[in-house]
Automatic annotation (TrEMBL), chains A, B:
GO terms for molecular function: DNA binding; DNA-binding transcription factor activity. Keywords: DNA-binding, Transcription, Transcription regulation. InterPro entries: cNMP-bd_dom (IPR000595), cNMP-bd_dom_sf (IPR018490), Env_Response_Regulators (IPR050397), HTH_CRP (IPR012318), RmlC-like_jellyroll (IPR014710), WH-like_DNA-bd_sf (IPR036388), WH_DNA-bd_sf (IPR036390). Residues 148-221 form the HTH crp-type domain. GO terms for cellular component: cytosol. It comes from Mesorhizobium denitrificans. This is Crp/Fnr family transcriptional regulator. The lineage of its organism: Bacteria, Pseudomonadati, Pseudomonadota, Alphaproteobacteria, Hyphomicrobiales. Signal peptide: none annotated.
Length: 235, 235
DNA sequence: CTGCTACTTTGAGCAAACGCAAAGAGAATC
DNA sequence: GATTCTCTTTGCGTTTGCTCAAAGTAGCAG
């Protein structure tokens, strides 16, 4: 097995404030693995044996309901932690993680979590900061789901995606991983049909360009306008 | 100013695993305050000067949108932490907290947070566990909002409320603080009209009894059935 | 007791979005 | 190059739940 270089993780938020020897020690117990597209990194409700850092690729975090419906909780970009059930005092994963493109991840045995958190206080702080910001994110999402209607939610969703994973192209900003109407529907609590209708409508207005598993936002600012109140603002 | 007795907080989850001298030290810097019904403990977006533990009463946590809509995030019961913006690395409160009955809270200056977390590791662990469980709760809520329809959501909401704040009475289990149709609507992302219609419907079936700012669940088990799939389960 | 305020109920019409169904288009496989 | 599979589009009927409006009711203040 080849040694992992410290530079892999040195710049990441989770490892901020750690000195070189700590980083090396942490990497000692890490194993790197490749995950091919559509493969699961971990499954909901299974034993939380490991926690991970995504080094390259994109990962979809999905929660399934008992009756088989799915909700896409978030997408993970390189540098982020995932599967940190241990940090929340859980023993099973609350969701599944699927590679949406070929990925590279580092994995640590879950039982090392408490050791790391005490041995490297900054690491503990950093991860809890992550958890905190995810809590904020998801609270915002609840507010959105409670107060906005579908069109606004989908618009917000696209804006968030291009902010997180946008790549500038000739036409505008593209979401740089394959994402279907169904995926967007599962992020926003609607159906793929409604998403499809919205996208074609927006395409006619020149707001977006979209195709199979692919969305480009042509005019982010006009989409933002849609994302805020469309009607009702005429006071 | 009278001294605060250690027994006030000794049993609480947040202070589990702390020895008596630590508890005393922590209480040294606490101040207790009474909050009368309908008064705010802190306001959304204001400087997060303090964090709190609720000793007695009930507190409603509300998030407001820029256009004035409100979403009730959760209710806090005695023993729980609130206003822990610091733990999430935030400097302002992400929501407002309103006393729904007369309350007693302990308050600490926010800047003590990091000191406590490092000086009393169990305290840090405990609070992060709290944050973790709130993350789980709210993720479940997102899934609910995305996949269930209003009737199920309201049923789930009532079940959660009686679990957290239920008091056994002759008629059934009552939510032991004043809660309006509007409040329930703001928890479930619907309107007070729809909640009212649902409750009267359920009352006719003998599932609940309700009145002004008051709801009693007569048959929790039948309500649970409603909360899961009503139709569509006939496979 | 009376009037006021806040909360609740109920009706009627309407719009948003879903469910169902079928056809069309892109990509991958053989 | 034909076939298959998956993803997407689009039409239509239906439903859910919202909006608007108005009346009813309980508690509170004077």
């Amino acid at each position: 097995m080849h040694r992992l270089d410290r530079s892999l993780i040195a710049g990441l938020p989770a490892f901020q404030g750690l000195d070189d020897s700590s980083l090396d020690a942490i990497l000692q117990s890490a194993s790197s693995l490749r995950v091919t597209k559509d493969q699961a990194i971990f499954d909901q409700d299974s034993d939380a044996h490991s926690f991970f850092v995504l080094l390259d690729g994109r990962v979809q975090v999905v929660k399934s309901t008992p009756d088989g419906q799915q909700v896409v909780v978030r997408y993970i970009v390189p540098g982020e932690l995932l599967g940190i059930a241990q940090a929340l005092g859980r023993t099973t994963y609350p969701a599944s993680a699927i590679a949406v493109v070929d990925c590279v991840v580092l994995a640590w045995p879950g039982k090392l979590w408490p050791e790391f958190a005490t041995a490297y206080p900054s690491f503990g702080m950093n991860t809890y900061r992550t958890v905190g910001s995810r809590l904020s994110d998801i609270q915002a999402q609840v507010v959105e789901m409670a107060t906005e209607q579908v069109e606004q939610r989908v618009a917000h969703c696209l804006l968030r995606l291009i902010k997180q994973s946008g790549k500038q192209t000739n036409d505008g900003i593209t979401i740089d991983f394959p994402i279907s109407r169904q995926d967007i529907a599962e992020m926003t609590g609607t159906t793929l049909h409604t998403v499809s209708r919205l996208l074609t409508g927006w395409e006619e207005k020149g707001l977006v360009k979209s195709g199979r598993q692919q969305v480009t936002v042509v005019e982010p600012s006009r989409l933002s306008v849609l994302a805020e109140g469309t009607a009702r603002d005429n006071i």
